[in-house]
Write a structure and sequence with these properties.
The protein has 209 residues and is α+β, with helices and mostly antiparallel strands. The chain is built from three helices and twelve strands.
Amino acid sequence: MVKTKGPLLSQDAVGSVADVLTFTSNHRRQTLRAKTKPKNPSTAAQTGVRSMTKFLSQIWSGLSTADKDTWTNAYPHMRLSEYHAFLKFNSRRWANELAPTPAFPPFHSTPAASTNFISLTPLFHGWEGLFFHFAAPSPWGIVIHMSTTFAFIPTRDTVIAVIETDGAVTTTWRKLDLPPVWHFVRQQQFVRGGTFRLVGPAHAVLPTG
């Protein structure tokens, strides 16, 4: 919204008109320019990083005191709290395509075979997924990958969510604001020992709209 002081362009105006033009001013003159918008305000890589950071931030409060205490000496030469050491270490693991771990050091448990079935229901410009994951031990969380290409290879750039699943055999999750074209979804589970299971097959869904 533009706020003016006197007739437009004769004195002062600041703000935007119709999300197209932007008025700015300094001590010398009034300037009118086209409002610029970022071409890609949220890249695929940024989405993956944010999804894992959100997971780590939310999961911390539920960790046992014993697990939290293991992070005290994770970075002995840096003055980090247990929480920030946990974030730093697991963010680096994620950057190296490794699963997060609740305790330091990770104990790398051997993942069992698991059911990676997904049931997808089309929604208006989106979908709702029911993700099955029964195995022993139960997964700590799942990474949801999505692409518009059927035979896509899951990477950090195809991640759309990281969700806690500890103790549950199914997880329901929605993805909205999608164009009405075919989307393909895959599930990757990880266990508390910091180990990924194999990525499941791709499941197709066509959002309505």
